[in-house]
Design brief:
By secondary structure, the protein is mainly alpha-helical. Helices cover 64% and strands 11% of the residues. Strands 1-2 form a two-stranded antiparallel ribbon.
């Protein structure tokens, strides 16, 4: 029982189609993995940026008034700090007026 040349061509074409499908599937998986990493990196950068903005506003208040603000609302009212509170939970713990407050920012 011999395999004809036509059958060999069909088999080769099936392997080529299979290879193309696997190749494009790998590219799609690679794309979505990269997108996921990019989104995660962006979220981490936004979190760090939000924390740094609060810290800078507190330091600005200290340099102007001579004491750190008592709470985050003071920064919002007097120093135009804008924070997306629907996205972040902000911890702002003060110890004394002349000690930098502990600032924590978490994603909801």
């Amino acid at each position: 029982m011999s395999i004809s040349a036509n059958d060999k061509k069909k088999t080769r074409h099936l392997f080529e189609y299979f290879f193309v499908i696997v190749f494009f599937a790998a590219i799609i998986i690679w794309f979505f993995a990269g997108y996921s990493n990019l989104e995660k990196s962006t979220n981490n950068e936004n979190l760090a940026f939000t924390k740094e903005s609060i810290k800078k506003a507190a330091l600005l208040c200290y340099s102007i008034e001579g004491s750190f603000p008592p709470d985050i609302d003071y920064l919002k009212d007097n120093y135009n700090l804008i924070v997306n509170e629907d996205r972040y939970i902000i911890g702002y713990d003060t110890f004394a007026a002349n000690v930098m407050p502990e600032i924590t920012v978490y994603v909801r």
